[in-house]
Specification:
By secondary structure, the chain is mostly helical. It has 2 domains: about 280 residues, no CATH class; about 30 residues. The chain is about 80% helix and about 0% strand. It has 14 helices and no strands. α1 packs antiparallel against α11 and α3 packs antiparallel against α8. It is globular, with a radius of gyration of 21 Å. It starts with a helix and ends with a helix. It is a multi-pass membrane protein. InterPro entries: EamA_dom (IPR000620), EmrE-like (IPR037185), Small_drug/metabolite_transptr (IPR000390). Its main location: membrane.
Length: about 325
């Protein structure tokens, strides 16, 4: 893959991790998602008059992707509402490249070389390894780890520590729901990746294609939210309008850059390389969300970095 394309996809990955962190950190994940989509739409409306219009042949793909994005934002906010970013993000972003790689050959006629398949395997293995590393222990594991440190201790304190260990064990109902929503969203991500990979090529104007997509998506999300939670949306927008601008710019630039890359490189390869967003997400989580990164998580991140390097030279 061309070095310039690699650099652009990595920038898109960083921006994607950034706006996802904004959604996770928001008090209301769904309303934050609506603000982010609306911010992207406002920026798009300002830029569209200066861009060439997409070819009419791409219109069905814009409409199909808009519908998929409705589900995407809903599932995204649901996953973050029920679970940590370190749980939901790897599942969403890690499963999608596998689905894209499987579907891109029959749908797009793309054939990846063995090195690119190996890179996809490295990246996906690293992302799933990161999920396993961030998983809380089962009750048996937690209790087992608590016993050695309590030898010779007061029995009451030992029982209390075991009770605390079991209370923090996984999986909780909330974590299971987050996992379900994240996996469903991976299907949505794979679907819009394939649809937009074709649509951007047919449009002849990937930047304008992306902006029309965000405008239509925001219109739908705003209409839905205003019909159901009008007062909450207005109050939330007044308090968090900066999130709309910052997150909107991040999501628009992230997806637009990735779409452009799909016009000059294999869709599955771009989709997999973009999943290095987990590297940036880990850094953001450690620095701003105060998440701890142990050796297992570091090893998983190493797999992702190795896959990215392998993709770079494929």
């Amino acid at each position: 893959m061309n070095p310039t394309v690699v650099a652009i996809v990595l920038l898109a990955a960083f921006l994607h991790a950034g706006w996802n962190a904004l959604v996770k950190a928001g008090k209301d994940a769904f309303l934050t998602s609506v603000l982010v989509a609306s911010g992207a739409a406002l920026i798009s409306l300002a830029a569209l008059p200066f861009l060439p219009a997409p070819a009419p042949a791409s219109l069905p793909y814009v409409l199909a992707s808009t519908l998929i994005h409705f589900f995407y934002y809903g599932l995204l906010s649901a996953a973050y509402r029920h679970g940590d970013m370190s749980l939901a993000y790897p599942l969403m972003r890690g499963s999608a490249p596998l689905l894209v790689a499987v579907a891109s050959r029959p749908l797009l006629g793309e054939v990846l070389n063995p090195q690119q398949y190996l890179a996809i395997a490295y990246i996906c293995s690293g992302i799933f390894g990161l999920y396993l590393a961030t998983r809380r222990p089962t009750p048996a594991e937690a209790a087992g780890s608590a016993v050695p440190s309590t030898l010779g201790a007061d029995p009451n304190r030992t029982r209390a520590r075991l009770k605390d260990a079991q209370a923090t064990a996984a999986p909780t109902g909330s974590a299971r729901r987050a996992t379900l929503f994240a996996l469903l969203n991976a299907v949505a991500i794979a679907a819009y990746t394939l649809v937009d990979g074709i649509g951007a090529r047919k449009s002849g104007a990937p930047a304008a294609y992306t902006m029309y997509l965000f405008v239509l998506t925001a219109i739908g999300l705003l209409a839905w939210t205003l019909a159901r939670r009008p007062a909450a949306l207005r109050a939330y927008a007044r308090q968090h309008w900066r999130v709309a601008l910052l997150g909107g710019l991040g999501t628009l630039a992230s997806y637009g850059l990735a779409l452009w890359a799909m016009t000059v490189a294999p869709v599955a390869a771009v989709a997999a390389l973009r999943e290095t967003a987990i590297l940036f997400a880990a850094a953001i989580a450690a620095l701003f969300l105060r998440e701890k990164i142990g050796w297992r998580r570091a090893a998983a991140i190493g797999f992702i970095a190795g896959g990215a390097a392998l993709m770079r030279f494929a």
